[in-house]
Structure formats: structure tokens, C-alpha cells
């Protein structure tokens, strides 16, 4: 449903040329300034990374709190949440709003670096890559999206010249391997590996 909405939204954006610039998009966006001072791009990158850490930390705290437990319970047993007096429709709306706020912040950061945006910027392949991100990093923690995003960027944008143009294929193969070898994602696999190493060390000491 979300994918269909995004496909229907793009022609609507192109049709509103006086507001959105049409197919040419919006260009010439000024760089961010603070009281007339334009920070260097390296400082903007550091601020963006700090925001990523802050948002991931906040979402992880929310996930492990009472609200996060209620949302996960609603996903598995919605009738139990309704029995507690919480409307699942309201909870779903709030959850989607939080996700939209995070996506809006990411879009603002993207535009502040690119200084332009067009309707074709976020294609269907970008949407699928966004779906792959938590699968690669791990869905059990908010940091899985951060790790997954780093892996996706490396496989699609920072590939060696010998593999240039094959990033999408490498990414697809990587997702399949992770789903087969580490269904809990890289973070889940890392935790399992650390537990195994600790177990081996404990047996060696015993």
C-alpha cells in the first residue's frame, strides 16, 4: 500500500509545477546557515552523524519502554491491546507519525547536502533498499537500521571500480545470504557470535 501510494504521489508532485517545480524539481536551495554563518560541509556531516546517533538512541529507548512493548504486542496480539483499553488504530497512527517524522528529518538532511531535489530522486529501487536496511542490520534494535544503511551504501555507492554497476546485484545476494545465515541480521549474528566465544572461554577456564 505504501509503495502504491509513493508511485501515485510522484505524478501529483510533477503536476504541481508552480509549487514543486514539476519534473525539474527544486534547485538552488541555499546551504544551511546559522545567523549568517555558513558551516563547512565537514561540520554538517558531523552534525548529521550526531543526529543519527541521537535519533537511534531515542528510538531504542522507546522500543524497550512500555510504549514499544505495547506496539510489538499490537503487532502480534492486537486483541490483547484492545482489551487493555488502547485503541489499535490510534496507536498505529502515532507509530506511523513517528516514522514519518524520522523520514522528514532524513529528507531535510539529504536536501541540505544535495541543495536540490526532484520527483525522480527517490525511485522504487530506493524504497526497496530502505526495506533491505533493517533486514541486513537486524530488526531487533534501532541500531540495525544504522548498520544496515552503512552496508547498503558501501555495496551500492562505494564499490570498487571493478564492480561498478553491480552494486544492486551484490546487495541482493548479500540480503539472501543474511536471511539464510543470520535471520536476525548482522547485529543478531554478532551477538550470537559473542555469546559463543564467551561460552568457549568459560568452558576453557572451567
Secondary-structure blueprint:
Elements: H1 2-15, H2 17-20, H3 41-64, H4 66-76, H5 78-83, H6 88-114, H7 124-137, H8 143-156, H9 167-181, H10 185-205
Descriptive notes:
The termini are far apart. Helix 7 crosses helix 8. This protein has two domains: 1-121, no CATH class; 123-206. It has helices at residues 2-15, 17-20, 41-64, 66-76, 78-83, 88-114, 124-137, 143-156, 167-181, 185-205. The protein has ten helices and no strands. 73% of the residues lie in helices and 0% in strands. By secondary structure, it is mainly alpha-helical.
Which key terms come to mind for this protein?
206 residues, mainly alpha, globular
Count of strand segments: 0
Q: In DSSP terms, counting alpha (H) and pi (I) runs of 4 or more, how many helices?
A: 10
- Helix fraction, binned, reads over 70%
Query: What is the overall silhouette?
Result: globular
- Any idea how many domains? 2
Mean pLDDT: 81
Major β-sheet annotation: none
Compact summary:
By secondary structure, the chain is an all-alpha fold.
